[in-house]
Specification:
Layout: H1 2-61, H2 67-101, E1 145-160, E2 163-164, E3 175-186, E4 194-207, E5 213-217, E6 222-226, E7 231-249, E8 253-256, E9 261-264, E10 269-291, E11 294-302, E12 309-319, E13 322-329, E14 341-351
Helix pairs in contact: 1-2
Length: 353
């Protein structure tokens, strides 16, 4: 029961911070877009001035205006486009200033100075024992650590005696999912090519046996046996709580302002190499079959002779918020089975950074 409460609190915490971070990430992307628009404005006005000058020269070549008139028209055109650049850039700067001034999610309490998420309270204290938020503080000049929500989905299977177990488990039917929260810290002070990414994740690894088989715990080992009826579904799932750690490599863009700067990896290629370790939260099996016209669903929770300590290696290669993600458990799925099986997963990872 305590474990369920703990998982519930962690899940609410992850989803709540994900909402806040999504808002901040959106602001960051808007700031990048506005910075890029400055260059577009200057380029557009220069091209427009060039077109005006060419038209004036054509009129002069056709003897429609004198040389003095042409020079005056060119000077007027140059002044006009210079003012256009100044005014348009001022508009963009005002938008940037507005975003910077209001860059946080403002769900304020009565004092109007902080965002608060209350999950229960101590018996004799009105203050929440679990608090998310921040006091109104001045912006940090350099923020070396950021955080983001992590979601991964894809296909799961097992490596059995060094080979993929697709002859035993359904290749497309066996799936995995991961949900969590990760922090990313810049390793070096003056450059951002290397980051350490670490966090907390729930992993759900599913296996669907082929040939009408299901898992049976004999006490000494867990084996696959043929079910005595035709199975519509046979699914086995392991739920884990792990701490992933990755070294993330890749270029980044430095965005500088008067009172702060940030490194952005949003539009850059990222490579992450690392691993994870944690504990098994549970193992369960679901069977679905037809019994004389009635749909029957059997759900079984148990140990199934599975390992309680989870550890493995993982990597991702991505761009923007999406990456190709692979992870491999170094621990065996079952403790005492004569044939070693290890989970392997391949899919997509989404980091809201």
């Amino acid at each position: 029961m305590r474990l369920i409460k703990f998982c519930t609190v962690i899940t609410v915490w992850v989803l709540s911070i994900a909402f806040i971070q999504a808002q901040e990430s959106e602001v960051s992307k808007q700031l990048e877009l506005l910075e890029a628009m400055k260059e577009v404005v200057i380029s557009e006005e220069k091209d427009a001035l060039k077109t005006d000058v060419e038209n004036i020269n054509d009129r002069y070549d056709s003897n429609l205006i004198t040389q003095n008139e042409a020079e005056e028209l060119k000077q007027t055109a140059a002044q006009k486009h210079a003012l256009n650049i100044e005014n348009r850039l001022a508009i963009i700067e005002n938008k940037i200033a507005l975003l910077v001034r209001n860059d946080s999610v403002e769900v304020l309490d009565e004092a109007g100075d902080r965002f608060v998420l209350r999950i229960g309270s101590e018996e004799d204290d009105d203050e929440p024992f679990f608090y998310i938020g921040k006091d109104n503080r001045s912006r940090k000049y350099d923020r070396r650590t950021t955080s983001d929500f992590v979601l991964a989905v894809g296909f799961n299977n097992a490596i059995i005696d060094g080979e993929l177990g697709d002859d035993i488990y359904k290749l497309a039917g066996s799936r995995f999912a991961e949900i969590g929260w990760a922090w990313k810290t810049r390793v070096f002070k003056e450059t951002n090519w290397l980051r350490v990414k670490y966090g907390l994740s729930f992993q759900f690894n599913g296996l669907k046996p082929k040939d009408n088989q299901y898992f049976v715990d004999t006490g000494s080992e867990t084996v696959l046996e043929t079910f005595d009826r035709d199975l519509d579904k046979s699914k086995f799932r392991l739920d884990n709580l792990v701490v992933p750690v990755h070294f993330e490599f890749g270029p980044s863009k430095k965005i500088e302002h008067d009172d702060y700067f940030r490194y952005s990896t949003h539009n850059q290629v990222k490579l992450g190499l690392g691993g994870y370790a944690g504990i098994k939260l549970g193992a369960r099996q679901k069977l679905h079959y037809d019994d004389m016209g009635q749909d029957v669903e059997l759900k079984e929770k148990g140990n199934f002779n599975t390992n309680n300590f989870i550890y493995g290696v993982s990597a991702y290669l991505g761009w923007r918020d999406t990456a190709l993600y692979v992870k491999y458990d170094l621990n065996t799925i079952f403790k005492d089975n004569p044939v070693e099986q290890r989970n392997i997963s391949l899919g997509l990872r989404f980091d809201m950074d």
